[in-house]
Design a protein that fits this description.
Layout: H1 2-6, H2 9-23, H3 29-45, H4 48-59, E1 75-79, H5 98-112, E2 118-122, H6 131-141, E3 149-152, H7 158-168, E4 173-178, H8 183-192, E5 196-201, H9 219-255
Parallel strand pairs: 1-2, 1-4, 2-3, 4-5
Helix pairs in contact: 2-3, 4-9, 7-8, 8-9
Length: 256
């Protein structure tokens, strides 16, 4: 996706290096040193140290599940996380990527702890069989009754997840199941549509320091940093959209 390229520390580092190479002789000394500092910072972000600091900055904003007020919600919303390839059939569960599976398993675990709860599985896509349909079928295979499952199959973004789930249920107190890294942005999107979501994490990406490799740039750290930056920037965009929607609502009330 184009935003992943634009927000990549590697892309920024390469572009800055090329720009410095072309303009070095004309740059003032202060600008040279500040540019070198930015370049070093970008390299640090591509190490496990930098990537995990970014991840921790996002994940630390997730409220604990125990902070959810009683009575606990009876609706559990699982946000799909993508597929590795288009599913060949509803039973082609290996097409789901690891993130989707982690989120679904976490949602089913929570459903088993919440008697009488409804499980809403979300996620559309370009493929003939949507992410939501694939995960809902897997949930049935794992023992969740069909009557307890609802499917939202049209959304392609977290914002659309919230919008479409809002049209499916009158319940505004829900459990929201996704990764710890994704939860802050997802919680913001669902709050913008009037939900009072309780967070349920399917897992954390943060890894504490361990060995010399923690300080050496790695492709896995780059992937993690890109994911964290995507969530940070996406959270800013969603916050702006939420404020814009509130302002529009106020204007409409004044003119009606």
């Amino acid at each position: 996706m184009i935003e992943n390229i634009v927000l990549s520390p590697l892309t920024s580092a390469i572009l800055l290096l090329l720009l410095l190479a072309m303009t070095w002789r004309w740059l003032p000394r202060a600008l040279r040193w500040s540019s070198i500092g930015i370049e070093i910072l970008l390299v640090v972000v591509m190490t496990p140290l930098g990537a995990n600091l970014l991840v921790h900055a996002v994940e630390s904003r997730v409220p604990t599940s125990t902070s959810c007020a009683l009575p606990q919600p009876q609706v559990i919303v699982v946000l799909s996380g993508g597929v590795e390839r288009p599913p060949a059939s509803l039973g082609d569960f290996s097409a789901a990527n690891a993130e989707s599976l982690h989120r679904l398993f976490a949602g089913i675990t929570l459903w088993r702890q919440t008697p009488g709860a409804t499980l809403i599985v979300t996620g559309g896509g370009e493929q003939r069989i949507t992410q939501a349909d694939l995960l809902a079928q897997l949930a049935r295979e794992l023992g969740v009754p069909a009557a307890a499952i609802r499917v939202e199959r049209n959304s392609r973004t977290t914002w659309e997840n919230a919008r479409d789930v809002a049209a499916m249920t009158d319940n505004r107190r829900i459990w929201l199941v996704t990764s710890a890294l994704h939860l802050p942005r997802a919680l913001g999107a669902f709050r913008a549509f009037g939900f009072q979501p309780c967070a349920w994490s399917s897992g954390s990406l943060y890894l504490p320091p361990k060995g010399i490799g923690y300080f050496i740039p790695q492709s896995s750290a780059l992937d993690k940093a890109e994911a964290a930056i995507h969530e940070i920037v996406g959270g800013w965009v969603y916050a702006w959209r939420a404020r814009h929607a509130i302002d529009n609502a106020k204007v409409q009330r004044k003119t009606s």
